[in-house]
Amino acid sequence: MHEDGILTLPLQAIKGRGAASRMVHRFARDARDAFDDGWDAQADGAGPAAAPRTQVIWEDARSALCSNDSPDIFFEQSVNPYRGCEHGCVYCYARPTHSYLGLSPGLDFETRIIAKRNIAALLRAELARAGHRPSVVNIGSATDCYQPVERELLLTRAVIEVMRDARHPFALVTKSSGVERDLDLLAPLARERLAMACVTITTLDAALARVLEPRAAAPHRRLRTIRTLAEAGVPVGVSVAPQIPFITEDMEQVLAAARDAGATSAFYTVIRLPWELNPLMREWLQLHYPQRAERVLARIQDLHGIAEADRRAGKAYDSRRGTRMKGTGLWADLLRQRFEKACARLGLNRQRTALDLSQYRPALARGQGVLF
């Protein structure tokens, strides 16, 4: 209850959604709180408020490829067919990007999906430039390229077709079994060392996954996707990211199950809480794990080396390059040791898949033949 006596509505988890509110984004001029005005929706037969539905918003993007020079990231270029992601993973580091659109990093990020209808045409034009320098392009760095709307919109498939035409190598990361639909494209490209895939499995605990990443494929289904990709000849790895202290505690079991399914490589990151993701994660913890919320947040602050004064101010993330992905200090080092020992025992990461950059031809992207 506010000091002025207004009774605020208690937050409640929403089935099938990661966020519980449309948290105000950082560029908003005004902040609003919901409150009980005395009108009971059920008293007049209206029933409880309906769960928010997914809305697709079309966008004409200005560019397809996004470049980065961060030492923390294994790719230099990426392409994202969508903004926002219906999977609703509460920890997603891309949530604060919805603020640039004037939308909430909370529910809006997972219910208002921006679809870039011209992404394939833009990508084809950019790959056709004579000055384009090829590097392995990551598909889906800030969204899941196989989230549910892809089943109908086929934007990711169109992007892969452009990469195929240009003979340009790429890797994709997903939590969805939807990637199996495109095996007719991925398997031949993988045989020619032009494609690889990575499946993220944060935990094998199905109950935890339902509230942590509510609309992503179930953990057992993702393992089946790894097996399907591997059997089709697609090099496949597993991402056990992000590691959330006292929440995701089965890293070794995930790595073993993924190895048994056919994964040959693995990587991890620790949870990061930039901008609005900090209060959003705190909100989620209070709803789902109130008894351990403070303990989890304290350990996240440990992982990012947050000083005591900054802790008191609520800071939980250090964005400095070089440490932001894996953390720093004792707990980060223990996590690294666990990962490395598990990978060594399981035979993961013994050989890295090297995709072939030499096959790229800008003329092929333009639809022209080449002599050599």
UniProtKB/TrEMBL annotation:
Gene3D superfamilies: 3.80.30.30. The keyword Metal-binding applies. Keywords: Iron, Iron-sulfur, Metal-binding. Coiled coil: none annotated. Residues 68-307 form the Radical SAM core domain. The keyword Iron-sulfur applies. InterPro entries: MJ0683-like, rSAM, rSAM_sf. This is Radical SAM domain protein. GO terms for molecular function: catalytic activity; iron-sulfur cluster binding; metal ion binding. It comes from Alicycliphilus denitrificans (strain DSM 14773 / CIP 107495 / K601). PROSITE patterns: RADICAL_SAM (PS51918). SUPFAM superfamilies: Radical SAM enzymes.
